[in-house]
Amino acid sequence: MSILRITGAAGFACAALLVLNAGRKGGLVPETVVTGAVAPFAPLTGLFAVTGIYLLIRHRSGTLGLVGYLLNSAGLAGAFGIEFTLHYVFPYLPGDTVAGLVAGGTGKAFLVTGVVLITGVLALGAAALRSRALPAAGVALYVIGMIPGSLRSAVPLPVYLVGLVVAAAGIALMAARLWSAQEEGGGAARIGGAVQASA
Hints:
Blueprint: H1 3-25, H2 33-38, H3 41-88, H4 95-103, H5 105-131, H6 136-149, H7 157-180, E1 187-189, E2 195-197
Antiparallel strand pairs: 1-2
């Protein structure tokens, strides 16, 4: 299976998890051990999807694409850490301890992570649009949705949840492109080092 197809599958998983998380936080999906446990994996699968996006556009995106990819990836890695903390650490701490952490350095780190993610999304989105290798609608939805979707503590909950769903739609459109694309440069990279030449 090609690397781009693997990252496309990760993108579909990310989109599904974002919608699931939005439904859970919005009260449409029951809060269970399973739905809570899978929540942190949305940014993790998104990290793989973003890697595929960069691989697809890297020859046409230049420095902007690279910077956007690095910042977007750093932001998603940070978001994974935040979600992991929210679901696997904070529930086991006293409420006043959690409140103190969020009001102090931990809350500031959460905000910085969101700013880094938004900056990366904007840069990678601009590079992707310039490359014309991905559906413009998918890129636009991803950028528009990820702005409020990256600022869970700074925007009203309905805006945050709508942002997640909009971003999920954009990721799904781009994942479909990754699923069907062959790597630029004449072939699709294969696991195990084999390469399938493009027609």
